[in-house]
Design a protein that fits this description.
The protein is of the alpha+beta class. It is built from one helix and six strands. It has a four-stranded antiparallel beta sheet, with no helix packed on it. Strands 5-6 form a two-stranded antiparallel ribbon. It comes from Gelidibacter salicanalis. This is Cytochrome C. Keywords: Membrane, Transmembrane, Transmembrane helix.
Length: 140
């Protein structure tokens, strides 16, 4: 029996396949030649009985730097003047990785400030309510 199995790989809606192989196959997808954004890898496999199976795998390519924006969210309604911090960083292979701190500075969340105020207020309340100089005579 002749083995006429074939696996054909397409990228996005392209009608011309970028690869055809006899299974099993291992390939390396070079994303540096694909523009950043959403893409779909379509795999069409034909069995020895000429029955086709199709599998589509959506994926996102991001070869460029990661862009982080602090101060403006998507679809946010704004007015007046808004301070915005923009940072772009990627995996530069020629650079050494040195930890210097946060790459994208962010404000301390409000819940942390509220927790600190509550701890300080409880401590002050405890000192005022239960301070008894008689208990501390040996210190003075």
């Amino acid at each position: 029996m002749e083995d006429n199995r074939i696996v054909t790989v397409f990228l996005d809606d392209d009608t011309k396949p970028f690869a055809s192989f006899a299974p099993p196959v291992k390939i390396v997808l070079d994303t540096t030649k694909i523009p950043d954004g959403k893409h779909t890898l379509k795999i069409v496999a034909k069995s020895s009985n000429n029955v086709e199976g199709i599998r589509e795998i959506p994926f996102i390519v991001r070869n460029g730097p990661e862009i982080s924006v602090v101060g403006l969210k998507e679809n946010e309604t704004v007015d007046s003047q808004i301070p915005i911090t923009i940072n772009a960083y990627g995996s530069e292979t020629s650079d050494f990785f040195v930890i210097r701190g946060s790459e994208t500075p962010k404000a301390i969340p409000a819940w942390v400030w509220a927790l600190l105020v509550m701890v300080f207020a409880f401590g002050l309340f405890y000192i005022i309510m239960y301070w008894d100089p008689e208990l501390y005579k040996s210190f003075f």
